[in-house]
Each structure stands twice: as C-alpha cells, then as structure tokens.
Write a structure and sequence with these properties.
363 residues; eight-stranded antiparallel sheet; DNA Polymerase III, Chain A, domain 2; 3 domains; nine-stranded antiparallel sheet; alpha+beta
Length: 363
C-alpha cells in the first residue's frame, strides 16, 4: 500500500475514528483502524461491534493494499509535522508515515461486510439540525448502561414530525420537530452511539440519509457511512406523562436572569454532601428565592417572576434544571401543583420542547 493524503484530512479522519475504537483484549484487531488503498480511493473502516463507521476519500494512490493498525500514537506524531501532504506506505508488518514506522495488526481477522445495505430509507435531515436535536435531548438520558432501556435517545419517525425523547427516570426531555419521515417507526439509539455520531456530524452542512436494516440504524452523508445497533428493550410510556397533567400553578421568568441565578446557586449546591445539587425554591408573590447550603457555604438568589396560583415551596435538583435551561433562548415557564408532584418546564412560544422534572424531598 502506498498513497499520499493531505495532513489536515488525515488528522481529521484519525480523530474521528479514535472516538469509536476501543481496546478489545479478546480480539485485538477490532481495536484497529482498517485502511484500504484502491485505485484512487482510500477507505477507512472502524468498528467497536456496536457501531461501524466507514469513510471514503479520494487520494493519489501509488499501490493498492490493506492494513490495520492503532492510530492513536500516529495521530500525535502527524500533528507535529509541517508538511501539507503525508505519504503512507506499508511493507511486511510495518506502516510508514512520513519518517516514522508503526506496527500493524493481522488484517485477515478484521470483520467483513460491516457496510450493511439499507433496507428502508426513513428520512433525510440536515446534519446541523440532527446534531442540534441530539444535543438538546441527550443530557437527560440515563448515563449508565445498567438500564439499557433508558440509556438511549428514543427517536420517533412520523409522516408529519420527527421527535426525540430521553429520560433517566428522574426527568424527561421531549423535542418535536417539523421534519417529516417516509416511514413511521420508533427506534432507541444507544447514548454512546449518539455521542459518537454527534462528534462526526457537528460540522456537516449536507443532508443525512437515515435508514434501517434489521437491528441497525444507518446514517449516510457525503462519502461517510455510520451504523449502530438499536436497543430493542421497551422505552417508558412517555405520552402518558406528557399528556396527563393539569397544573394549578404557572410561573414565568426572564431567561437570562433565571439562568444566571441558577448558575450561581449551583456553585454551592454541587458541594453539598447531604443533598448534592439540591436547592429550595420558594415562589412567593412576584419573587422566586432559590437557596442552597453545604458545609462550606450558603447562597440565596432572587428572580423576578409572573405567577399564576398560590405561593408554594419545593426542592429541585438545580443541576438537572440548569441543564435544560441552557438549551433555551426565551422566557422560561415552570408549571406545577405542589412540592411532591412533577414539574413541567418549557419556553415562551415553543410547545415543542418540554422538560419533566421530579422534585426532591423537602428538607
């Protein structure tokens, strides 16, 4: 194998695949990046058995060939070079990059047929939009894989909308978009896969085609192919949570003022050993008082509000509340009934983005 490639392209490609590749002591070749030089094209392939990523780039190829190696150290080396173009070549069990040599893995044990043909195309969506939708929902998914049913983003494809839902059982985020789907279906996309995909598409200007084949969801754009296994466990019935609420109290806050108050309180609340990230919220008249304490400090912050309903007090996880507020742009609405019932948070002029937050026990 022998080909020339732009140094900047190689840095970008290696960086993308490092997000996917994981050490595999049982089958070490899985932790490697496969590079194939074929008549003017170079194909990069990586997998962790749950996620597959294949990227094709046009290059000046001199000799065809295939290698598999771990790119981490090579990436550090390439970043230190000044050359605009880099030559990669292989002989026996060595990959030469510029003036350095790297050991190869046995490529005959690398998985075949990782690019599964799409059986059904579900939708096409802007890469920047898809990235934004995932970012606005993934923060409230269960971060641990102990409960796979909620360690995911539930994506619902309908003819008139595409929706994204996440929950960790203490909170729930729902985002409905105006994008349309060709086929109506629901999929639970593992959170790890969503995080990897977000890194790959954050700067993509073109549309992404979404399809599926058996137990894989497939994303394709430009000369890139990304597939992920889906979670088949049932997702919680979120419709009942979103539609079954009648709230007796509603408060409206200035976005910037409210966000600033939460951020200040969080600096103290996160250090509390008794109730980490917990704070007391007192809705009285036209003022909200947010207070938190730890063994090291106490804090009180006030925010103006417009309130409909009686005065009341509750305790909330301020970190959870702040993570949703960060994704808003307009005035914040909080709806609730009492200190022991769920709260709904949304923003002015946007009924398509909602957040359900369970309260903490009042101290």
């Amino acid at each position: 194998m022998n080909f020339n490639i732009k140094r900047s392209d190689l840095i970008e490609i290696f960086s993308e695949f490092i997000n996917i590749l994981k050490d595999n002591p049982v089958k070490p070749v899985i932790s490697g990046l496969k590079i194939e030089s074929i008549d003017g094209n170079v194909i990069f392939t990586g997998t962790n058995l749950d996620v597959n990523y294949i990227k094709t780039i046009s290059c000046q190829t001199k000799h065809n060939g295939t290698v598999v190696f771990k790119p981490n150290l090579a990436l550090e080396y390439i970043k230190l070079l000044d050359d605009e173009f880099i030559t990669l070549s292989s002989t026996n069990d060595i990959l030469s990059i510029h003036l350095a040599e790297f050991s190869l893995l046995l490529n005959e044990n690398f998985p075949e047929n990782l690019k599964v043909p799409t059986e059904h195309t579900i939708a096409e969506i802007s890469g920047k939009e898809l990235f934004k939708y995932f970012e606005k929902t993934k923060f409230s998914a269960a971060q641990s894989s102990e409960n796979l049913a909620i360690n995911c983003i539930r994506t619902i494809f309908k003819k008139d909308r595409i929706s994204f839902v996440s929950t960790d059982s203490y909170r729930l985020t729902y985002l409905k978009t105006d994008n349309s789907a060709l086929i109506e279906s629901d999929f639970s996309i593992p959170l790890d896969s969503v995080n990897i995909l977000c890194k790959l598409i954050k700067d993509i200007d073109t549309d992404i085609s979404i399809g599926f084949s058996r137990d894989n969801l497939i994303f394709q754009w430009n000369d890139s192919y990304f597939s992920t296994k889906i979670i088949v466990l049932p997702f919680p019935n979120f419709d009942a949570i979103l539609c079954g609420n009648n709230f007796s109290k509603e408060m409206e806050f200035s976005y910037s003022d409210f966000k600033s108050s939460l951020k200040k309180v969080l600096t103290v609340a996160r250090t509390s050993s008794e109730s980490k990230n917990g704070a007391i919220l007192e809705f009285v008249g036209k003022k909200l008082t947010i207070s938190a304490s730890s063994g090291k400090a106490k804090i009180n912050q006030k925010s103006d509000m417009i309130k409909n309903g009686d005065d009341f007090k509750c305790s909330l996880n301020i970190k959870f509340l702040y993570e949703f507020i960060e994704n808003l742009d307009n005035n914040v609405f909080i709806k609730g009934n009492n200190s022991s019932a769920m709260f709904e948070i949304s923003e002015r002029d946007n009924n398509s983005y909602k957040y359900i937050l369970m309260p903490l026990a009042l101290r």
